[in-house]
Design goal:
alpha/beta; Alpha-Beta Plaits; TIM Barrel; 2 domains; eight-stranded parallel beta barrel; about 20% strand; binds phosphoenolpyruvate; binds manganese (II) ion
Length: about 325
C-alpha cells in the first residue's frame, strides 16, 4: 500500500507514519516528489487496516496497490522517475543515446568509436567486457582489461559508460568502472544478480528477457528496487516470436504500456531488437515517436570485422547520419536529443 501525505505535511508527521509502519514490520520506501511525499509500505495488508494511519496528522489517504509490482508502478510515484547520470538526465525531455560496439575488442577500437559517437551527440558509450554468448566457444569478452579500456574512453571523452554484469560476484568489480550496470536479456530473471544490484549505488539498465512478458520484466525491476536501488532504466530489446526475417521482434507497443504502468524510464535497443543493420534507423525513429526516453545502438568502426553482432552494427558514419534524422523526430514530439 502507499500512504499519500498532505502536500504540506511536516517531516515529523512523515516520521511518525514511518515509525508506526516499522513497528508493525513493514518495509518502507520513501518517495519525495515535487508536490508531496508518498510512503510505500510493503507488508501484511490485513495488519495495515488496524494501524489507523488515515487518522494520523498529515496523512491524506492510504491506497492499497493491487499490482504485484509495488515500487515500480505509477501509483507509487506519479511523476517520471528521472535518473541522473553524471549530470545528464534519463527520463526527462532529452532522449539519451547510448552507442558503441557489442563487445570491447581493443583500445583502438573503443577510442575511435568513443570519439566518433561523442562528436555525433551520444551521451553514453556502450561495450561489453563480459559477454554472455549462446556458444561457449564464442568470444566471451576482455573482462577487467575491457573495463579498464572503457574507463580510459570515459576519461578521454567525458562519455558515461554502460556495460554488462553477468553474475552477482562481479557486481563490485563492474561497479568500480561503469556508470550504468547492464543486465542482459538472458539474465533478466537471475534473481540473485538482481538482488545484488539492488544494493549497488549505480543505475541499472534492465533489458527485457527474450521471452518475458511486460509484467515479468516489471517484476524483475521490482527486485532491484526492493533492496533500495531506485535507479532502474528499462530497455526493450525485442522478444522471440515466430518471425524469421528479424532476430527478434521489437515490441514498440511496450513503450507506451510501460510508461502507463510505471514511472521508470524506458529505452529501446533496435540493434538486438531486429538483428539487421538496415532496420535500425527506422526503428530508432519509431521508438522516439512512441515515447522512448533513450536508445541503445550498436556501432562499430568496421562491422565486418566485429567479434560479435557485426550484421546489426552501424558504421560510425551511418550513426552520425541517423543522429541528424533523429533530432528532427525528437523535436516533433517535443523532445531534444
Ligand atoms: C548486448 O547488449 O550486447 C546484449 C548482449 O544484449 P541482450 O542482452 O539484449 O541480448
Ligand atoms: Mn550485442
Amino acid at each position: 500500500m502507499i500512504i499519500v501525505m498532505d502536500p504540506g505535511a511536516q517531516k515529523k508527521q512523515v516520521d511518525e507514519v514511518m515509525s508506526r509502519l516499522k513497528q508493525f514490520g513493514f518495509g518502507i520506501h520513501l518517495s519525495e516528489g515535487e508536490s508531496r511525499t508518498v510512503i510505500g509500505a510493503i507488508g501484511d495488508r490485513t495488519k495495515a487496516l488496524s494501524l489507523g494511519l488515515e487518522a494520523l496528522e498529515g496523512v491524506e489517504k492510504v491506497v492499497p496497490i493491487s499490482k504485484p509490482y509495488k515500487l515500480v508502478c505509477r501509483e507509487f510515484k506519479q511523476e517520471n522517475n528521472i535518473i541522473d547520470l553524471n549530470g545528464a538526465k534519463i527520463g526527462g525531455e532529452k532522449i539519451m543515446v547510448m552507442a558503441g560496439p557489442c563487445a570491447v575488442e581493443s583500445e583502438e577500437q573503443m577510442m575511435e568509436t568513443a570519439e566518433m559517437v561523442k562528436a555525433a551527440g551520444a551521451d553514453v558509450l556502450r561495450g561489453g567486457a563480459f559477454k554472455p554468448r549462446t556458444s561457449p566457444y564464442a568470444f566471451q569478452g576482455m573482462e577487467e582489461e575491457g573495463l579498464k579500456i572503457l574507463a580510459k574512453a570515459r576519461e578521454k571523452t567525458g562519455l558515461s559508460i554502460v556495460t554488462e554484469v553477468v553474475n552477482p560476484q562481479s557486481v563490485p568489480l563492474v561497479e568500480q568502472y561503469a556508470d550504468v550496470l547492464q543486465v542482459g536479456a538472458r539474465n533478466m530473471q537471475n534473481f540473485h544478480l538482481l538482488l545484488e544490484l539492488s544494493k549497488a549505488k549505480k543505475p541499472v539498465l534492465l533489458k527485457r528477457g527474450l521471452s518475458a512478458t511486460i509484467e515479468e520484466w516489471l517484476m524483475a525491476a521490482e527486485y532491484i528496487m526492493s533492496g533500495g536501488n531506485y535507479q532502474v532504466i528499462l530497455c526493450e530489446r525485442g522478444i522471440r516470436t515466430f518471425e524469421t526475417q528479424t532476430r527478434n521482434t521489437l515490441d514498440l507497443s511496450s513503450i507506451p504500456i510501460v510508461k502507463q504502468l510505471s514511472h521508470l524510464p524506458v529505452i529501446v535497443d533496435p540493434s538486438h531488437g531486429t538483428g539487421v543493420r538496415h532496420l535500425v534507423p527506422s526503428m530508432c525513429k519509431a521508438a522516439i515517436a512512441a515515447g522512448a526516453d533513450g536508445l541503445m545502438v550498436e556501432v562499430h568502426p568496421n562491422p565486418e570485422k566485429a567479434f560479435c553482432d557485426g550484421p546489426q552494427s552501424l558504421t560510425l558514419l551511418q550513426f552520425k547520419e541517423i543522429m541528424e534524422d533523429l533530432r528532427r523526430v525528437a523535436a516533433s514530439v517535443d523532445r531534444t536529443l
